[in-house]
Amino acid sequence: MKALTIRLGQFAICALVLTILFRYVLNLCIEANSIWGTVVCSVLYGGLMFLAGLYFGKKDYIENEVHDIGFRYHLVTYILCVGIGYGVYYLGWNTESLQAMTYTAISWGIGLTIHFIFYLIEQKRTIKGYAREDIFQ
Fold this sequence. Notes:
By secondary structure, the chain is mainly alpha-helical. It is 79% helix and 3% strand. Strands 1-2 form a two-stranded antiparallel sheet. The longest helix has 30 residues. The radius of gyration is 17 Å and the shape is elongated. It starts with 5 loop residues before the first helix and ends with a helix.
């Protein structure tokens, strides 16, 4: 099984652009004290990230027969979102407090760890990334 695929790279670029745009627009909405703008921005960002993951993940599954229950996409999203969150904080876009970002990173990291455990269980059910049912019919 390939760990790094073209589709994962495309998703990472898409997620990078979406996350930077989200942080920028979120900063503008917070500075303008726009609650509705903040809510709409957050919901739209979450929906677009979900659709991007769904699109690239399905293509990855079909093209590369990857059986990883989306863990690689979850990991890339975590690294980008947390990394960009801290980056924009230190750039002066104080959309969140440092404490809130740290709590978010820790709680999301716990969820990622649980996802990793399920990923390992799924890997034990496959042979080199292929479902046993596909090999032994």
